[in-house]
Design goal:
single chain, 65 residues, mainly alpha, Enolase-like, domain 1, globular
């Protein structure tokens, strides 16, 4: 279950809404990974961050599935 999110970016206001929804809805990392994210968008960063919990971030491409 996702209980908090930190976004350090000048674009944080563009993607914080998805994180807020995930917390309020009790989403898990898998829920975020399974959500279809429009590509390319800034909010896709939420999905990539979630995927980094399951994959080695150093070996991930920009578009991990």
């Amino acid at each position: 279950k996702i209980v908090g999110v930190h976004i350090v970016s000048s674009l944080a206001s563009e993607i914080i809404h998805e994180a807020t929804l995930a917390i309020r809805s009790g989403f898990t990392i898998d829920d975020i990974i399974d959500t279809v994210h429009v590509f390319p968008t800034f909010s896709e960063a939420i999905k990539i961050a979630a995927q980094s919990f399951k994959h080695d971030a150093k070996r991930m491409s920009c578009c991990v599935e």
